Amino acid sequence: MELAAGSFSEEQFWEACAELQQPALAGADWQLLVETSGISIYRLLDKKTGLYEYKVFGVLEDCSPTLLADIYMDSDYRKQWDQYVKELYEQECNGETVVYWEVKYPFPMSNRDYVYLRQRRDLDMEGRKIHVILARSTSMPQLGERSGVIRVKQYKQSLAIESDGKKGSKVFMYYFDNPGGQIPSWLINWAAKNQSRTKREAQNQRDLIKFLANPNILQ
Known about the structure:
Layout: H1 10-21, E1 31-36, E2 39-46, E3 51-60, H2 65-73, H3 75-81, E4 85-93, E5 96-103, E6 111-125, E7 128-137, E8 149-152, E9 154-163, E10 169-178, H4 185-201, H5 205-213
Parallel strand pairs: 6-8
Antiparallel strand pairs: 1-2, 2-3, 3-10, 4-5, 5-6, 6-7, 7-9, 9-10
């Protein structure tokens, strides 16, 4: 059942829950990119853009589900640890809470900015509490494009989190992002692959928590 324009459907929230329980990797050419510290990252080529979609599965042993969900939603805290944030805030537009986010890019590339919807729901699945967060790009006249900054118009992410039965979290994340501009797709994908190699060598799962909270980390 679809909701009003700009919202997420009930089905979309439950689809994320279902994938947390049983990864949906069959029937498509999903490739295992990297495994590190209990986290597996898969990718699938989007033939229209030449970029990759990503799915992440695994367990974070030292972070509770509620804390992880709260970290993801806390824009003010993100400004403290994410050095690439130029500007980040929420604004009410047409009855929706919209996130504006400008990301610093290295010279001579232009910064990118995002305008996206984000919703969190805490669901009960047969007595198990599952936190689900959905996000996708949108367009709002109140948050028009800025001179010198490239607007990211294709961005989608879903995150589902539940207890691992101990002190940690079992997680699923889907992510796709097209930064646009004149960056060749091969260069973006190369950077994503090398970033994942760095994650393979990371032993501190707090770094992986930041990785899950940062949609831009795969660029």
